[in-house]
Structures are given as structure tokens and as C-alpha cells.
Write a structure and sequence with these properties.
The protein is mainly alpha-helical. About 60% of the residues lie in helices and about 5% in strands. It contains 6 helices and 2 strands, in the order αββααααα. The chain has a two-stranded antiparallel ribbon with strand order 1-2. β1 and β2 form a beta hairpin. The longest helix has 24 residues. The radius of gyration is 23 Å and the shape is elongated. The chain starts with 12 loop residues before the first helix and ends with a helix.
Length: about 160
């Protein structure tokens, strides 16, 4: 059922904003679910399993497409706000958050959870420092804060 065209201008600015945000969050959830339906993922410290048969996975994807289609209809019918997200800024924010967590993973900061073996300063902290340097280098590279040549991976890994 199509939305009656006469409703297009019946939302005020705040209502348009609220509806846009709600549907944007739904769209992001649909994107995440679609990625999960791609199959199991294996990381180093994280495993994600999605136990669905191929038939159910395809049916779920069709349902996700129906949700996207409905979002598209509402966006067009009510002239909803489209947010342009800068992927590089998101990446930099994720790296900044990771850097903050790494700072808290230093041996001196682990004391809040109990006694810390003195050897951790020599065994753990150099690895944490290396990760911090890699994260900061990646953040600088993505942000274009410093010039890097084509062999930039050498600079990040050294």
C-alpha cells in the first residue's frame, strides 16, 4: 500500500528528523544482520557463528530486502534526511577508542584488577606499546596527518 502523497508535507522538521534517525538505525541494523548472514567469521579473539541453513539464510536476506525497500519508500514519500557519513572519520574514531583501551591495558593500569607480577612490565608492556604505535600510525595515515610513501606498510610494521 502506497503512502498517500498528501502526507508528504505533514511532518514538521523535528518529526522528519526523528523518523530519519529511527529508520537510519534500522538500516544500520539491517546492514549488520546482512553481514552476519554471510557466514561464520573467525578472528583472533572473536568468533561469530550464524547457524542458518542456506534456505533460511536466503529467506532472511529476502526479508531484509523488504525492510530496505520499505525504508526507501518512506524516505522518498516523506523526503527524509539522508546522512552522509565519512568513513575515514569513523575509522579514526574507532582507532582513538582502541588507543584509549590499549593505554588501560598497560601493566601499571591492570593493578585495579589485582596484584600485577613485576615481570609483566617487561613481557606485556612492550607489546602494548607496539600496538599503540601501530594504532596511532594507522590513525595518522588515515587522517593524512603525515606524508607516507607508497611503501607505507613498511613504516607501519617497522
Amino acid at each position: 500500500m502506497d503512502i498517500d502523497q498528501t502526507y508528504k508535507n505533514r511532518l514538521n522538521r523535528s518529526q522528519i528528523s526523528s523518523l530519519s534517525i529511527t529508520l537510519r538505525h534500522l538500516e544500520m541494523a539491517v546492514e549488520s544482520i546482512d553481514q552476519l548472514l554471510e557466514g561464520d567469521r573467525r578472528g583472533i579473539l572473536k568468533r561469530t557463528t550464524t547457524d542458518l541453513s542456506a534456505k533460511r539464510r536466503e529467506a532472511a536476506r529476502q526479508m531484509l530486502m523488504a525492510v530496505r525497500d520499505e525504508i526507501q519508500v518512506l524516505t522518498a514519500e516523506f523526503d527524509l534526511d539522508v546522512e552522509v557519513q565519512n568513513g575515514l572519520k569513523i575509522a579514526v574514531a574507532l582507532l582513538a577508542h582502541s588507543w584509549e583501551g590499549l593505554e588501560d591495558a598497560r601493566s601499571e593500569n591492570l593493578r585495579r584488577y589485582g596484584a600485577v607480577d613485576a615481570a609483566l612490565k617487561d613481557n606485556l608492556d612492550p607489546h602494548i606499546e607496539r600496538l599503540i604505535n601501530l594504532v596511532l600510525s594507522l590513525e595518522q595515515f588515515i587522517s593524512n596527518k603525515r606524508e607516507m610513501q607508497d611503501d607505507s606498510s613498511e613504516h607501519l610494521i617497522s
